[in-house]
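Backbone-to-sequence.
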């Protein structure tokens, strides 16, 4: 879990207790790597734990460094998927930091990538919050599109994926999490209690663990709410 106020990234155990704090000048987004490696995006860099990974050699589609370091994800081959939110493009790098692919929203200017997630089967998912669409990628290539329009989402802003490939979409307009199957069919809606909403404030991101527990993180409060 990233905490820009600290600043740093905290590794938590299943009971929510802090196991480790990783220093970072401006953590915004995190993604787990191999073993205990944690990739951290923010403050014009990508770091692996406390070490700067991106350096000065990371180049985007125009031969220059990404303009804005946004959400990040990894696949089993070690490819790093990074959203340059300023350019509205998904950049794909190999382990050697070489740009090996890129993807823009299929809807063009009508689309807007807002978040990334990865699944246990090696898939990476890009959420287009404006077009209400999820792009699934495997081995750096697009394999499927999932239409979220039938779910009636107002402001899709964050995504997580569980071991079954089910999609968890945070609608920040109402503060709820809509759960859909891999094809985009609604399974259920998770609504925080009034007490939880009061502690959480505006929800900003979410995660799902290996046993299906869902975590919501407050934008300003720094509080974490867990659904059993």
């Amino acid at each position: 879990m990233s905490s820009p106020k600290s600043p740093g990234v905290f590794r938590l155990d299943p009971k929510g207790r802090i196991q480790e704090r990783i220093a970072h000048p401006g953590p915004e987004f995190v993604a787990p790597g191999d073993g205990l490696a944690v990739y951290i995006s923010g403050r014009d860099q990508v770091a692996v734990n406390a070490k700067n990974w991106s350096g000065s050699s990371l180049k985007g589609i125009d031969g220059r460094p990404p303009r804005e370091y946004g959400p990040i994800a990894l696949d089993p081959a070690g490819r790093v998927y990074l959203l340059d939110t300023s350019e509205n493009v998904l950049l794909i790098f190999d382990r050697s930091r070489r740009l090996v692919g890129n993807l823009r929203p299929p809807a063009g200017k009508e689309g807007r990538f807002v978040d990334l997630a990865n699944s246990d089967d090696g898939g990476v998912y890009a959420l287009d919050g404006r077009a209400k669409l999820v792009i699934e990628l495997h081995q750096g290539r697009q394999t499927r599109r999932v239409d979220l329009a039938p779910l009636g989402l107002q402001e899709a802003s964050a995504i997580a994926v569980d071991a079954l490939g089910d999609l968890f979409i945070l609608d920040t307009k109402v503060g709820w999490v809509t759960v859909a199957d891999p094809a985009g069919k609604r399974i259920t809606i998770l609504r925080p209690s009034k007490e939880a909403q009061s502690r959480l404030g505006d929800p900003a991101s979410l995660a799902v663990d290996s046993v299906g527990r869902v975590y919501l993180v407050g934008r300003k409060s720094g509080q974490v709410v867990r659904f059993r």
